[in-house]
């Protein structure tokens, strides 16, 4: 069992930065790949980034590549999403998720656990 809690969302101007954190409880955090997803109003939830459990391999959606960085600290059971050069179209609720799979891109139904989400709003 893994319990996930996101933090770090907020309101930022276009071009600014935010760092999201996702703290996990449970003994098996290091055995899960961790992903970030986002859902904008009226849109489906979409994959943002993944970091594998077995090594620090990362993969990103094309829309955030070069601007966002995912990382993890297994000692702290925490995964981060550093978001730079934010755009208004990045506005969404951001969710972290845990998956036993190691893929280039995660689908929502491949994730076993989800956080409650944190709102990110980017103003133009």
| Class derived from helix and strand content | mainly beta
Helical content class? under 10%
Quaternary structure: single chain
Order of helices and strands: EEEEEEEEEEE
- Overall form: globular
Task: Please state roughly what percent of the residues sit in beta strands, choosing from under 5%, 5-15%, 15-25%, 25-35%, 35-45% or over 45%.
Answer: over 45%
- State the separation between the terminal residues, measured CA to CA: 40 Å
* Low-confidence parts: none
Mean pLDDT: 94
- Could you tell me the number of beta strands? 11
| Biggest sheet record | 7 strands, mixed
Radius of gyration, Cα only, in angstroms? Answer: 13 Å
Count of DSSP H/I helices? 0
List the defining traits of the structure above.
mainly beta, 7-stranded mixed sheet, 4-stranded antiparallel sheet, 0% helix
Task: Please provide a brief summary of the model.
It is built from no helices and 11 strands. It is mainly beta and 124 residues long. The strands form 2 sheets. Strands 2, 4, 5, 6, 9, 10 and 11 form a 7-stranded mixed beta sheet that branches. It has a 4-stranded antiparallel beta sheet with strand order 1-3-8-7, with no helix packed on it.
